[in-house]
Amino acid sequence: MELKEYLKVLSKYRTTFIIVWGSVILIGLLVASLFSQKHKATFSIDITRDVQAEGVQEYDYDQFYRLEADDRFGKTIVQWFGDRAIVNQIELVAQKENDDFKNYDFKTDFRAEKLANSYLKVSFLVSDRKEVAPIFSATKKVLAEKVAEFNGGFNKQNRFKLVFNGPTIADTKISIVPLLIILIGSGFFIASFGVMLRRYLE
């Protein structure tokens, strides 16, 4: 199809073209506005031990097995954050942090990554910055209980201990100019496809 014919088709179905193009832009802006209200909180977790074993050197076998144990325990913590029952428990504890959150409805999704044998990075999204403090505090309390249960069968020098760092908070707002460029461009192609599809069906 030549350009002139293509333009004639767009002109003939210009109402459909404008409606589809405008809908893509509006829907994109609406979705972006919902996400732009979010704030991302990030904190890290270091896996340590309550008491270090004496006489253990950096390249001793004991140190190797300790790193292996830290690695496996780190994977366990990542799984904890993916367990909805544990996340629900964190949300319930967060409600009890103070009276302001007694009837507050927390909806939290965690993303945990194990970046090294004994180092994890955890992030979660909130709609209000005031939610970060109670969620972070509740996370430390719930994980402390889980670690205590996990440590039940270990001797003192092998018990795991979690050290929390953070959190830091960053806005997840999307820049409006690049977003508009993307929406206008993608909307044009989608609208063009919709017009050609309508012509084909007729």
Oligomeric state: single chain
Main β-sheet: number of strands, strand sense, barrel status?
A: 4 strands, antiparallel
- Average per-residue pLDDT, rounded, comes to 84
Strand order across the biggest sheet? Answer: 2-3-1-4
Number of strands: 4
Secondary-structure element order, N to C = HHEHHEEHEH
Beta fraction of the residues? 15-25%
Determine the structural class based on helices, strands and strand pairing.
Answer: alpha+beta
From the N-terminal CA to the C-terminal CA, the straight-line distance is 17 Å
Radius of gyration: 26 Å
Helix tally equals 6
The parts where pLDDT drops under 50 for at least 5 residues are: 55-61
What global shape is seen? elongated
Keywords:
4-stranded antiparallel beta sheet; 6 helices; elongated; 202 residues; alpha+beta; 4 strands; single chain
How do the strands and helices of this protein lay out in sequence?
Elements: H1 3-12, H2 14-36, E1 39-49, H3 61-81, H4 84-95, E2 110-116, E3 119-126, H5 132-150, E4 160-171, H6 176-201
Antiparallel strand pairs: 1-3, 1-4, 2-3
